Amino acid sequence: MASSSSSTAPTQSPPNPEGPFFSDFGITDSGEFYAKNNPFQRSGPVGATERIAMAKNDKVIYVRVDMPGVPKECLYLTTFPDNVVFCGGLAPMVCEGDRGRLYGASYGLRSYKLRKPQVNISNGVATVKMKVSKQKSKAGTRCSNSPSWDEELKKDELSFYLVTHPSETEGPKETYGAKKVKEGFYVWVDMPGATKEKVSVGVEDGFVVFSGETLNESNHEGSGRTYKGRFGPFDVTKIGEIKTDVRNGVLRMLIPEKADE
What we know:
- It is built from no helices and 18 strands.
- By secondary structure, the protein is mostly beta strands.
- Mean pLDDT is 81; it is low at 1-6 and 137-159.
């Protein structure tokens, strides 16, 4: 099988002879996904996990962890000896067709003494804030005991070009999906950081088109993220008004099918 470095990433999911499929992925000029963890991302920081920065004056290390679907009440933080912090979250099922997800990872410091770790989550993006005190050595400040930054490639045809979330321990590994339900099609797309005010959904040329944008998830980031994609095709005369829900960094859509007259 050819590697992603020597071939072009697909611009759509495999066509479904029995129904609609996803397309209009974010592909760069080099023919690869802009963000290998989310094919619909077009700009901004990539990767589901990222050590952001160490502020020069306040001696704080920040780690961004995308946890789409996780509300504040389902986020938790535990500290252990030897400068180790464990951060986890539960994304519950919210409607028919949904699948819950579970996240968890540990982060540690080699060269600084850790004190007063904190975690916050907003729109599916968790920020672990680790204050440090006196430097213990000159070995560096990178996080240790963390999930692998070189996430493993999945093996099916499309996802060979994508990477899975290193901190997700249960639930669907894809950042998007669709399911045929009684009313029509239930569709979900991860957009970590996006709010309902910054997400739009419409119908163009028989396709359901969706897009979203985020603000900076941290004062240490240079820009937010943008997402765009589509799902279809449909006979627009046979679908009803699309119902949308944007919650905790996940866009959910119910595309109803009209009953035959």
